Amino acid sequence: VKTHLQAQTLSAVAVGHQHNHENISRAFESIYKQHGVAGLWRGVTGAVPRVAVGSAAQLATFASAKDWVCQRQWFGEGSWAAVLAGGMVSGVAVAVTMTPFDVVSTRLYNQPVDADGTGKLYRGFLDCILQISSKEGLLGLYKGIGAVYLRLGPHTVLSLFFWDELRKM
C-alpha cells in the first residue's frame, strides 16, 4: 500500500506503473478485492531479506566501529561521541547492504500484475535481481542510496545511541 501510494503521481510525470488509489483505505480495499490477502503481502520476498541483512550489518559493524575509533584515540572509551561515530559507520554499512533489497522490493511491490496477481515484469526476487543487473548493471541495484542513507543513517545513529545508553543503565 505504501509503495503504491508513494509511486502515484500525475500521468504527465509518472514513471512506472500507476495504481491510482484515492487514499490509504481505498488502496487496502482495492488490493484486497483484486488479489486477496496475498496481494497485501506481494514483495515480501524482498522485504524479509532486506531487514535480515540490514540488521546483521547494523549489529556487526556498530561495536567494531565504536571500538576502532576508541583505539585510534579519536574519542574516549565510553564517550557519546564514540557511540555516534560507531553509529555513523554502521549507518553506511546498513545503507550499502539494504539498498539492493529496497530496489528489488520496490520493483516487486510496484509492478503491474495480471488478473491472478502474478507480476508482469518479474517472476520473483531472484528474477528481479538478475533483470536489474543485466539491464542496468550492478549500480542499478543501488538506485537511491543517498536517500536511503538520509533515512537510515540518522535512524541507525539514534537507535544505537539510545541502545548503548540503555545498556549502560
TrEMBL record:
It is found in: Mitochondrion inner membrane. The keyword Cell division does not apply. InterPro entries: MCP_dom_sf, MCP_transmembrane, Mito_Carrier_Antiporter. Solcar repeats lie at residues 1-68, 78-169. Keywords: Membrane, Mitochondrion, Mitochondrion inner membrane, Repeat, Transmembrane, Transmembrane helix, Transport. Its main location: mitochondrion. GO terms for cellular component: mitochondrial inner membrane. It is a multi-pass membrane protein. The keyword Transport applies. Belongs to the mitochondrial carrier (TC 2.A.29) family. PANTHER family: RE38146P, SOLUTE CARRIER FAMILY 25 MEMBER 34. This is Solute carrier family 25 member 34. It comes from Dromas ardeola.
